[in-house]
Description:
The chain starts with 5 loop residues before the first helix and ends with a helix. 24% of the residues lie in helices and 37% in strands. The chain has three domains: 6-51, no CATH class; 65-159, CATH 2.40.50.140; 180-325, CATH 2.40.50.140. A five-stranded mixed barrel has the order 1-3-4-6-5. It has a five-stranded mixed barrel with strand order 8-13-14-16-15. Strands 10-11-12 form a three-stranded antiparallel β-sheet, with no helix packed on it. The protein is of the alpha+beta class. The protein has helices spanning 6-16, 21-34, 41-51, 118-123, 254-261, 265-272, 275-285, 317-325; strands at residues 75-84, 88-92, 95-106, 109-115, 132-143, 146-151, 156-159, 188-198, 202-206, 215-217, 220-223, 227-229, 232-242, 247-253, 289-299, 304-314. The radius of gyration is 25 Å and the shape is globular. Helix 1 packs parallel to helix 3 and helix 2 (21-34) crosses helix 3. It contains eight helices and 16 strands. Residues 207, 209-210, 212, 223, 225-226 line the site of zinc ion.
Amino acid sequence: MYNLTYEQIIELILEKSVISKEELDVKINSKLKELSDLISKEGAAHIVANELGVKIVTIPKTLKIRDVLPGMRLVGLTAKVINLYETREFVRNGKKARVSSMLIGDESGTTRLVLWDETQINSVKDLKESDILKIRGAYCKENNGYKELHLGNNSQLIINPEGESVGDVLVRQQLIRKNISDLNENDSVEIIGTVVQLFEPRFYEACPECGKKVKPIDGTFKCDTHNTVIPKDVPLINFFFDDSTANIRVVLFRDQVLNLLEKTEDELQEIKNSPEKFDKLKSDILGKQLLIRGRTTKNEMFNRLEFVANYIQEANPVEIAQTLSK
Ligand SMILES: [Zn+2]
């Protein structure tokens, strides 16, 4: 498996040796002929690079979670299942689709693993915690400051491969879970509970560069960092969240709003202008059980604590039971 394209390999060879482009083409073509086209041209380029003493740095086939970074493709690793999340249904291009996710970990850290392929989703339906997964060809994305590993149609997933094991999982950056009644200002924590009241979605004008709120000045909009910008509408929603110890107002921004409501931005704009649509939305959302990560902040104007979310997901019933029994 080569992590570099043919063009990238060629570029590297030309950069690190004295061979000309023409000579290199000749060498690669004759290598392809010599091996009767049994190898790909990338493969031939690698062999030629070796012959020329040019080291092609490739990402090792197997990584530790700590070393997987957003933007990486063709990631391979072996990890242990730590937590299984509920498979969600959604509609894409008018078709029903599903997405499944779980938390996996190894000796170096943990990450969320996301599955989009129906065959793969079916293959994990009997998965248990502590099962071992061997993953090939995954890609890594960033989501709200956390890296996520995604599997596509061409990725491979092997459950409990023979002879593979994972040591003690290092749980890092795992946020502490707190009862809402125990929250203090500036706590970065995880809370689990139920949506008990939902307020109408709103939009505010934000800098397209950094996402911060912009100020209207003389008919233009100014960002503190990026000066005059053409703002974009960013959705915001508030709801009351209760975990049976207390409740708190939660504030959600941007993608998390769309994520919670399972709506597009356009649909949200419509809801803003339609009390009927908002009532319907409310009845869908009230009672939803969520796991929310974020930070407790003090709203000075109202002298109350609020929770600014940076990650939400539907709570797993097992987790809710564990929280209640504590
Ligand atoms: Zn800005």
